Amino acid sequence: MPNIAKNTSVQTVITTFEMTPGTCQDLLESLTEAYADFISKQPGFVSAGLHVNDAQTRIANYSQWKRREDFLAMLRTPEMRDRNRKINELCKSFEPVMYDVAETFGNS
To answer: d(Cα 69, Cα 92) in Å, to the nearest integer?
Structure first.
């Protein structure tokens, strides 16, 4: 489960996917499988969450990694490169972007 905190040492990656409602479920299944079978088992993986908008035209993926290099190493593996080619066929575009948590708010 993602833990969003300002003073943390993890690398945050937010990836947005744009697709049609007709391919949303296929893409969601592909991403779920990628996390269950491969990504979550990679060195440095901490947590992730998948979010779908009401219109089923966008998926947002929030993931956390111990280090920036861990995320980049996962992307460079032959298996992930192959998976990304298949994911690319299911969506109009996707873009992973690394972020630092600037601030958090909540009632807890």
So the answer is: 27
